[in-house]
Structures are given as C-alpha cells and as structure tokens.
Amino acid sequence: MESYSGLSHVKDRPFVLAVSAFDKPFARLTCQRAIEAVLSGYYVDQEWFLREGGALQGQRLESVVKDNDSPVPLGIFASEDFAWLSAVIFSFCASWGKVRALSSDPNPNIIFQTVKRNLSGVTAHVGKARKSEYNESLLDGLRVYHNREATHKLDKGIFRNNDVFQWYYSDEKEDWVYADRTGLLLFRSVFTGIRTTRIDPAGKESDGTAEGEI
C-alpha cells in the first residue's frame, strides 16, 4: 500500500493474490474448506458430519486460535482493511501431481485417484484410472474468489472457463454466484506402481506391482 500500489503499471488496477496450501503434510486434503473460511468466515466441518451424521451445514467463524493461542481473524473479504485485495486465486491441485497428469510419461503403472464435485448430493464422485485413461486440464482445480468490497474489482470474464470455479457477488441478482458444475476437480492423488519380485511359499518367483503414493 505504501509503495507498490502507486507504481504506474499497478495504480488503479485490480490486485490479485495466488496461493496454495503447503503449510502441513496432506494440507491438500482440506480442499476449499480452509480458504473459504479465511475469506468469508464460513466453514463446513465435514469430519463432524461424517462422524455425527445429519444435514451437512456450515458455521460462521470470526477467528481461530493457533497452537500458541494467537488468534487468526477470518472473513477478511468482509473487512474494509482488505479493500485493496481484488481477488484470491487458489488451487489445491497445483502440485507435482499436476505436472504428472499433463506429462507424456509412458509409465503404465501411474494411477490417478480423484474426487470431483457432485451438485446433486453431498457425496462427491470418486474415480480411479491409469494414466493412459486419465485426462486433466491445466485449469482443473483452479478456484477464483472475488472480493465484493474491493476498490478495483477483477473482471469475471478473465477466468471464465468450464474447468474454473468462481465465487462472486452479483449486483444484478443481489446474491452470491457460484460458477460451479458437476465434475469439477476437488482432489487428486497420484500413485506409481513399482515392479517387484515375489516369492511364493514354494520358492517360485513371480512379478507383482506395489503402489507408492507421490
């Protein structure tokens, strides 16, 4: 705000942050829940839902407490202090798995396991396929969250794509819009089969495949 925002190529233009979650092992498992809590203060505790059952509902949170008892405020898009932030681009699939999905690696033992959006229910679509049968685009897993209170708003058309999720407020509809569809990628894991030699009780050798997660 003190220097960068005043530069000639930046002044009076939208400012966007692109982030991903690598704060702890398996951070990608949170998918979109954590970033939506940070930006809007809305959080869905799926772990509680799976344990207790009932209707899948979210809750409003103003802050969370870190292990050292320091509070972390949530819902930053509702704060005027963040009016300089036009949007946040988030991807939990921007990992080495994306590189492997788009590569031409001929290894026949690369296996992709995916979780995809299901708009008709709370249970997501789960799939598993070998690389020769798997397709993923560069934009799969990308999510764009627009700040309603931003001083300089980001044009929604820039990221309008069938593989991109967008979340923004529509002045025409006077409501929040979720550019979403069934089949959007939520989570992806990559496993590579390693050729091994197995010896049966009779002492006979045979080939097998063991899976290792990457």
Report on the structure:
The protein has one domain (4-213). The strands form 4 sheets. A 5-stranded mixed beta sheet has the order 1-6-9-10-11, with no helix packed on it. Strands 8-7-12-13 form a 4-stranded antiparallel beta sheet. Strand 12 (185-199) and strand 13 form a beta hairpin. The mean pLDDT is 87. The chain has helices spanning 33-40, 46-52, 96-102, and strands spanning 16-19, 42-44, 58-60, 63-65, 71-73, 87-91, 110-116, 125-130, 142-146, 165-170, 175-179, 185-199, 205-213. By secondary structure, the protein is mainly beta.
What's this model, at a glance?
The chain is mostly beta strands and 214 residues long.
Following the backbone from N to C, one meets helices and strands in this order, namely: EHEHEEEEHEEEEEEE
Strand content: 25-35%
Number of strands: 13
Strand order of the largest sheet: 1-6-9-10-11
The DSSP helix count reads: 3
Layout of SSEs?
Blueprint lengths: L15 E4 L13 H8 L1 E3 L1 H7 L5 E3 L2 E3 L5 E3 L13 E5 L4 H7 L7 E7 L8 E6 L11 E5 L18 E6 L4 E5 L5 E15 L5 E9 L1
Parallel strand pairs: 1-6, 9-10
Antiparallel strand pairs: 2-3, 4-5, 6-9, 7-8, 7-12, 10-11, 12-13
